[in-house]
Write a structure and sequence with these properties.
Shape: globular
Largest sheet: 3 strands, antiparallel
Helix content: 25-40%
Number of helices: 9
Structural class: alpha+beta
């Protein structure tokens, strides 16, 4: 027993040395990995690894624009796609804390000419993808309106007359429609636009100067172009009017801004501990709120 007490401090010392060595090696090992990934698999993007709010590794790879030979930098702004959804769920939780809505509220409290089929749906169902409302991006007509849509309402109109796929809460089914509807709820409850609410209550307070709602007409410095593959070759991604994805997928940001947001969220600077736990607790299929 006496020997084990002597060994324990030595073990802790060795462990601390090992952890410091691992942290010191991380930048080199991470760079080797992502350099190989860029060379062999065409990875293009920005990587940031942080611990306790401090970046341990941050580096860009590939091109922001291949046609103009513009490389990515750590400040390149990318479309977030569905990473927009956590911001939408955050806004709903903030409004709930402000007493402007309740998660148990029926969706139809916030929707004009709400379909009868949607009456059992609550905000909780939308947040957790358990509403049964069909996903408008799965509809055959979606591709036809992707470029020409005038607003997010064009997407909602594709499914507004359809019955629910299942009873609310019965199962999980990923639905962009649900998160577009949450954007409508946010605007109704806050009395301002989705974009303005996030700007005033999240982006500006956190110093997220490189984050916002994307627009094809806006001149946006260091914006990354979008790409896809066709027959195994790189191609320009199809144009999408960003009014359509709305609160389900229309934000842009940088890795640095996302780190600011992550730290503020996990440190309880945006939500109370109870609301944060609610937001991060899985409901079905290991999916929480956004």
């Amino acid at each position: 027993m006496r020997n084990s007490r002597k060994l324990f401090p030595a073990f802790l010392l060795l462990l601390c040395v090992a952890l410091r060595t691992m942290a010191a090696q991380l930048p080199t090992q991470a760079d080797q990995y992502f350099t190989a990934l860029a060379r062999e698999k065409g990875f293009s993007g920005v990587v940031l690894v942080a611990k306790d709010g401090k970046p341990l590794f941050e580096k860009s790879y590939g091109m922001a624009n291949y046609e103009l030979s513009v490389p990515n930098t750590v400040n390149t702004r990318f479309r977030l796609g569905s990473v927009t959804k956590p911001f939408t769920s955050l806004a709903v939780m903030m409004l709930a804390e402000q007493g402007k809505l309740k998660l148990e509220d029926p969706l139809c409290n916030y929707i004009e000419r709400c379909p009868t089929a949607w009456k059992p749906v609550t905000l909780h169902h939308l947040l957790s993808h358990t509403s049964g409302i069909k996903n408008f991006t799965d509809m055959p007509e979606y591709m036809a309106i992707m470029q020409t849509a005038q607003s997010h309402l064009d997407g909602l109109n594709l499914v507004k007359s359809l019955p629910l796929a299942f009873q609310p809460g019965e199962r999980f089914s990923y639905s962009n429609t649900g998160y577009v509807l949450l954007g409508v709820v946010i605007e109704k409850a806050s009395g301002t636009t989705y974009q303005e609410y996030l700007q005033k209550n999240v982006f500006e307070p956190l110093g997220m100067k490189h984050t916002g709602y994307d627009s094809s007409t806006q001149i946006l410095e260091q914006r990354a172009s979008g790409y896809s593959t066709e027959d195994g070759r790189l191609a320009n991604a199809r144009f999408i009017n960003m009014r359509l994805p709305f609160s389900a997928g229309a934000l842009y940001s940088t890795v640095g801004d996302l780190m600011l947001w992550d730290q503020a969220l996990t440190q309880g600077r945006l939500l109370s501990a109870g609301s944060l736990e609610k937001m991060l607790t899985p409901v079905l299929d290991n999916y929480a709120y956004g």
